[in-house]
What does this fold into?
Amino acid sequence: MKLLYTINSPYARKIRIVAAEKHIDIKLEEVVLSDPDCPVKQYNPLGKVPVLVLSEDNDSLYDSRVIAEYLDNRTPLAHLIPKDNTAKSAVRRWEALADGVCDAAVAVIMEQRKPEQKQEEAFIARQMDKVTRGLTVLNNDLGHSKWCVDDTFSLADIAVGCMLGYIKLRFGTTIDLAADYPNLERLQSVLIKRQSFIDSMPVAN
Ligand SMILES: N[C@@H](CCC(=O)N[C@@H](CS)C(=O)NCC(=O)O)C(=O)O
It folds into this structure.
């Protein structure tokens, strides 16, 4: 199995962490999405990472939520998605909201990379609203709990941790997690001590 990824994609990081936590050996292939020869489109018509290539005859899985579930079911070791339906839906909702915050944050970054006169301020403001509303709900829902769902480390914590890593990377000077979202900051400070998080830390570029 081979994972096509980019170093700072929070969705791809989620998969790298899931694989590491589950002790599943996958080959990592870093790609450059803007490269005309980038192999991602061959496996995912949407041209997005992460993609998990299962075999050379183009058998592949995407997106990150599908890959996470596939890897979680591959070994019975340390389940990250609970079997119980209520807990499972809770974990997947946390993941959906964390991923949704990433979607809005990525959209802002893409807009801000356009020449200034082509950027739409109203679009950026709408996306930033989603980021702040999402962070507020996640922070409130976490409260003083150690982990997001049922006091157990799960895919919810991984998804939230990857989102927080991306927010720190891209909005570190404008969003003060410690001041405005202290519960999330506390969760992040625990997560970044795990080897899986250390090994997949995003890098400024
Ligand atoms: N819902 C997807 C989102 C994946 C995604 O948006 N990946 C970004 C990188 S952070 C990407 O590949 N963007 C390239 C593009 O949109 O063309 C997932 O969870 O895997």
